[in-house]
């Protein structure tokens, strides 16, 4: 397929690389030029603008940081308006439910297929092509891009006909991840307050009651205080918690834990930790306990 890939950041670049290796004709765009150059060295084409990247594409994949970046690249540049009928846009970014619904409506007006397909997995998982893909949109449209999903991920989870359903599910998952990090931070502070070694405690819980990837991965980072380089920035975690709260309010679902979690993130940003890995959220509990 002829694929335009918009957003060659930490996650987007390895995903685009995998599509090139699988034999797809990829034309990549990124706001900064270095990732475009790296992708071109592997056999892809480099585009100076999103609209140039999307010209004559069969499928446009966007993997951008947030709502503002997605809106700027897809709508404000005229990229969506320039797509040929029958093109499919796959938005793999974590965006708000509101933007997902808006994009779905705009694409339908133009006869362009739209699939929301945010992913689960950090950069090493993206490099291995083993992401879990949360997909929603018209079933036939999702089926048409499934060959691309097969390159990028180990499993596609189809969540419904409305694209925003995938984004709601992704935000719910990220709320759970943030909660796990916050809980570990507080539990570690409790154990340390009674003289239990942090690393020993985290090895215990992640080998027994909480032997799951999120606890193991973030638990190891917390134990080692390894917060750089960031696999997923704490500031982006705050963005997703805020989006989860907004999505919940839209359907009258109270999320009191998410409200407390949002405040913990804001506290971290007040200590200039937004650029650190999400695991650094654990520092908040340590500071509150007088341990840091």
UniProtKB/TrEMBL annotation:
UniProt xrefs under InterPro entries: 3-OH-isobutyrate_DH-rel_CS (IPR002204), 6-PGluconate_DH-like_C_sf (IPR008927), 6PGD_dom2 (IPR013328), 6PGDH_NADP-bd (IPR006115), HIBADH-like_NADP-bd (IPR029154), HIBADH-related (IPR015815), HIBADH-related_NP60_sf (IPR051265), NAD(P)-bd_dom_sf (IPR036291)
Stated name of the protein: NAD(P)-dependent oxidoreductase
PROSITE patterns from the UniProt entry: 3_HYDROXYISOBUT_DH
Keywords: NAD, Oxidoreductase
Lineage of producing organism: Bacteria, Pseudomonadati, Pseudomonadota, Betaproteobacteria, Burkholderiales
Source organism: Cupriavidus gilardii
Keyword NAD: yes
TM ranges: none
Signal peptide: none
All residue ranges annotated as the 3-hydroxyisobutyrate dehydrogenase-like NAD-binding domain in the record: 166-283
Top-rank taxon: Bacteria
Domain spans labelled 6-phosphogluconate dehydrogenase NADP-binding: 2-160
Keyword Transit peptide (UniProt): no
């Amino acid at each position: 397929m002829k694929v335009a890939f918009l957003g060659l950041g930490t996650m987007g670049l390895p995903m685009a690389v995998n599509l090139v290796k699988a034999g797809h004709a990829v034309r990549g765009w990124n706001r900064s030029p270095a990732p475009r150059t790296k992708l071109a060295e592997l056999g892809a084409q480099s585009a100076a603008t999103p609209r140039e990247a999307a010209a004559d594409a069969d499928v446009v994949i966007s993997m951008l940081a947030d709502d503002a970046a997605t809106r700027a690249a897809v709508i404000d540049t005229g990229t969506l308006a320039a797509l040929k009928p029958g093109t499919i846009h796959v938005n793999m970014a974590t965006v708000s439910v509101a933007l997902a619904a808006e994009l779905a409506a705009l694409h339908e007006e133009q006869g362009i297929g739209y699939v929301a397909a945010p992913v689960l997995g950090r950069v090493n998982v993206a490099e291995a092509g083993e992401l879990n893909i949360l997909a929603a949109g018209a079933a036939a449209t999702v089926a048409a891009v499934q060959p691309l999903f097969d390159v990028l991920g180990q499993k596609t989870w189809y969540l419904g006909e409305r694209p925003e359903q995938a984004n709601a599910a992704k935000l719910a998952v990220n709320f759970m991840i943030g909660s796990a990090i916050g809980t570990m931070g507080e539990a570690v502070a409790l154990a340390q307050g009674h003289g239990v070694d942090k690393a020993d405690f985290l090895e215990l819980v992640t080998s027994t009651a909480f032997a799951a990837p999120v606890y193991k991965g973030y638990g190891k980072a917390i134990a080692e205080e390894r917060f750089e380089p960031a696999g997923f920035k704490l500031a982006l975690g705050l963005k997703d918690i805020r989006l989860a709260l907004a999505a919940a309010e839209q359907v009258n679902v109270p999320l009191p834990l998410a409200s407390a979690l949002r405040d913990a993130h804001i506290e971290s940003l007040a200590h200039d930790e937004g650029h650190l890995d999400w695991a650094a959220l654990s520092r908040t509990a340590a500071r509150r306990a007088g341990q840091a």
